[in-house]
Amino acid sequence: MSEITAHHGLLTDIDLHVDDTGGSGRPVVLIHGWPLSGESWGHQVPALESAGYRVVTYDRRGFGRSDKPRTGYDYDTFADDLQAVLETLDLRDATLVGFSMGGGEVARYLTRHGSDRVHSVVFAAAVPPYLAQTEDNPEGPLDDATADGMKQGLTDDEKSFYHQFTTDFFSVNGSLAVPQQEQAEAERLANQADHHAALKAMEAFATTDFREDLTHVTVPALIIHGDSDSTVPFEGSGKRTHEAIAGSELHVVTGAPHGVNVSHADEFNRVLIDFLKR
Asked: Is residue 37 among the annotated active site residues?
């Protein structure tokens, strides 16, 4: 593991915690969801490494073991942080895998930095194209009342909010689809997040419009999504992202909640590795 400095001005450099398996395999960069950290990819890293890939995970600013500055919780900055990781490790021909909030980084990265370092991309239970339900985005799955309730819940009682959020994260029809210890581990990771960072990042993923960003996805793309995802519902997110990216591949996991990479890890890994081989 190491720390990578993301440069965003003379007084605002921050360190991002990065884990890198190393090796000569083609790089796969795993970008975690909110409010977790790179540790949430524990079911993917060994499988990808065994398949011969160099696997890189990192903790988003404000989360996990990375620095927790007061500023920079917008997708332009998140994408620039991702570029700092790729540049510092000199990763080329990489596949970017964005889970949930991390799918926004993937989309915005290609807009801001292009695809010179990118072989392909994966949107896993991801928030694009645009979560907010607005007049010009009626298919957005996140209405104002739900968004306001999430913000208020996190503001009023952070620990209780994270417990319920991570429970819903792994639930289908109100029942956990993973062992209890998986939910407890996600809750542990969530509680590492800085409170201010969590609120600002929540605002970012809830309100950022990625519809134009998706037009910049010109590399091979895979969308993986659970059909029972109640956190980022498939119909309003993964389905629309697949329709927006010409030639993209779609794999819908039957009976999977939002945390599909944990609940259906074997299927998730198989589909991901099959895609990486092409």
From this structure: no
